[in-house]
Write a structure and sequence with these properties.
The chain is of the alpha+beta class. The protein has 7 helices and 18 strands. α3 crosses α6 and α5 (237-243) packs across α6.
Length: 355
Amino acid sequence: MKKIVVISILILFSGCIFQSLEREGFKEEDLTTPFPYYVTYDAKPSSNSLIHFSYSYEIIWEINDLYAFYNGAFKIKIRNTGNTKLFVYGFAIKINDMEEKSKWKDGKFILPGEEKDFSFAFKCPPPGIHQYKLGIYFMAGRGNRWYDYGLKFSDEKRELEIKGFENATYRLYKNYYLYFDKINELVDTNDATILQRANQIAKYGNGYNIANVCAIFDWIRENIQYKNDTDDEWTKPSIALYEGGDCEEFAMLMAAMVEAIGGTARIYLTDNHAFASIYIGKNVDLLECIDTYYHANLSYALFHDKFGYWIVADPLASTYLGGLPVGGVVTGGEGKIYEWSIKTNKLYSIDVMRD
């Protein structure tokens, strides 16, 4: 009898040891690609006045991490503090003595007291510290009369740090069961609170499209409060929606809201960070739509696997959908799609299954 018990115990332990540590995750039929959507802007008014209308505005900007030979990005907020209407139709940067301009045929009206967001991208110079000035193309008007001020540079010079290439390697783990089970228990894509807020934000067109993914990313970045959770206790996205959270909450909220409107998302965990990615299909054609949404020629961080492409969505690191995540570094190349890696020993890729 004792021999039978021992054999049974050995069989039991052997099953625990040799069971898979990886959950099944997505199948091809689980994936949804966003529809393309091209956001339009206001048509530029005619310059039909010889009168220089007075104007006043405040401008503040944020800069993403900048890497040599890729497209650097600014997030710019302009508040109209005067009594005349403004129309902004482009930006420029003067780095040392070199200028790069982005002048549009359309733009955004800013009424007195209003604040509008813009993005501006430019080709980064070689690595180093550079002096720069930021410029703005704008008009000022009253009624139907507009005076075009053209390009005006700021008086203040600031420093711009352009990074060189770095090396980073990691080991990838897919759907590790502890993280898979925990995340998929917390992320309820049918949660009424998440569904309601996601649909309020997703104001572009009908159905699941890439502009609405950008809108959700921007909304989370602008409205959710970051809290450093020293206890590392993860909360549901519906709670983070009102109470904020740290990187895990941001990642799960991004995934939950995108999946609530019909999308497909993953969450990645590094040694000390978490962020989401969104499935965008078998090719990178949708990047053109994202450029249109932000009105800027941007560079993007993507993952690629047997299913296609996944765009990084880390509001804690980037001012736009597709920027590098926290810990992300560029390893070489130049142009539209980053050659990049992450400074981490282990990277866990977790599929967020739709309920």
